[in-house]
Amino acid sequence: MFTFEVEMGHAEKLKELEPRRRRGARLLAQGMAPAEVARQVGVSRQSVMRWDRARAEGGLEALRRPQRFGRPPRLSEAQCAQLAKLLKGGAMAAGFSTELWTLPRITQLIQEQFSVSLVPSSVWRLLGRLGWSVQRPTGQARQRDERAIRQWKAKRWPALKKSQRDRAE
Question: Which domains does the chain have, with CATH numbers?
Fold first, then answer.
């Protein structure tokens, strides 16, 4: 089951790094020691040294967010934002019979809304990049059969405990 806590996604985290690199470069240009720059910006000293080399070779332009390589994403940032709204709206609002979000349901939603075919593992990675994770329900299922649970605890559980004890001896 999926419920979502929207955290800062991967793309947003990458966008935050560029201002930190520029701030670090400014502090270095003002004569601050690399170790102190690292402490103030919250990165390793090696990162500061790498930024300084990049700035020396390519100027401030070298500190910009690097181009991402590999296959371009199948969903644009706007589509990802729209997907987030759809997911927050709930599974029933999206036409499903229950509020349970599953990877196959989200895959189907993406196919219907954006005409993009993704396999569930790709949807899993997409949700991770957006900062979402699996959330477990805190309550118990409505279908819970208390009588069957009592019977299991009375009959099966003692037998399991006894077999564990016998093996330990």
Answer: 10-63 (1.10.10), 75-169 (no CATH)
